[in-house]
Amino acid sequence: MFEWLVIPVAYLLGSVSSGIIVCKLMGFDDPREHGSQNPGATNVMRVGGKKAAGITLFSDLLKGLLAVWLAKIVSDSNSIVMLSALAVFLGNLFPVFFNFKGGKGVATGCGVLLGLSWGLGLAVALTWIIVLKVSKVSSLSALIAGCLTPIYAWFIVAEPEYIFIATVISLLSLWRHKANILRLIQGTED
Q1: Distances (CA, A) of 91 to 43, 61, 119
Q2: What Å distances lie between residue 42 and 49, 57, 81, 107, 152, CA to CA?
Q3: d(CA 2, CA 157)
Q4: Domain map (residue ranges) of the chain
Q5: What are the φ and ψ backbone dihedral angles of 16, each rounded to 5 degrees?
Q6: Rounded to an integer, what distance in angstroms lies between the CA atom of residue 176 and that of residue 69?
Q7: How does pLDDT run across 128-187, given as a tens digit for each residue?
Q8: How far apart are CA 59 and CA 2, in angstroms?
Q9: Dihedral Cα 175, 179, 185, 190, nearest 10 deg
Q10: Phi/psi at 188 (5° precision)
Q11: Half-sphere exposure (CA, 13 Å, Cβ side) for 91?
């Protein structure tokens, strides 16, 4: 019965905004006050450099992974695992500790997918890395990886619950990138 508590715990874990905390601890400005006004790794790099961005990226990925692992340890229920995966992701997008203004979910979503299926998470991460190396545009990398996520889930995992969660994560992340999509279309994206 208490296994359901892992879902709100996952949301609270997701609500810990790594970028804001990293910048504060390293003496940098709040990333929400600069650039894209997003506390994700890309904007943290603009504010605090590569080291701060790397720590943010790793921390966001880790919280997604940990939430799924915790759910798998606590419960045998696939529903609880999937709801926990969604909860940590929503916590990252809408963190209760930071006025519900969070990141775009790229790293946390990748961590969630790694927790659900190593193959799926690695396929998404490798897509993001390859597109970034070729294009040098982080948002384009996230968008392409996000669009391919449900397809990867279909072929790699092929279970309806995994495909559903992968699709929801993908759609929410794409929605959070709507300003980036507009700038890419206009040719004004950094």
Answers
A1: 19, 13, 24
A2: 9, 9, 29, 10, 24
A3: 28
A4: 2-186
A5: -80, 105
A6: 25
A7: 999 999 999 888 999 999 999 999 999 999 899 999 999 999 999 999 988 888 888 887
A8: 27
A9: -120
A10: -110, 5
A11: 25
In tens, the pLDDT along 9-65 reads 999 999 999 999 999 999 998 898 887 788 888 889 888 989 999 999 999 999 999
Yes or no: say if 51 and 131 are a contact pair by the CB < 8 Å rule: no
Task: Give 73-123 pLDDT, tens digit per residue.
Answer: 999 999 999 999 999 999 999 999 988 888 899 999 999 999 999 999 999
Contact 108, 38 (CB under 8 A): no
Residue with structure tokens 């969070």? Answer: 102
Query: Residue type for 98, please?
Result: F
CA Rg value for the chain = 16
DSSP string, 24-66: HHTTPPPGGGSTT---SHHHHHHHH-HHHHHHHHHHHHHHHHH
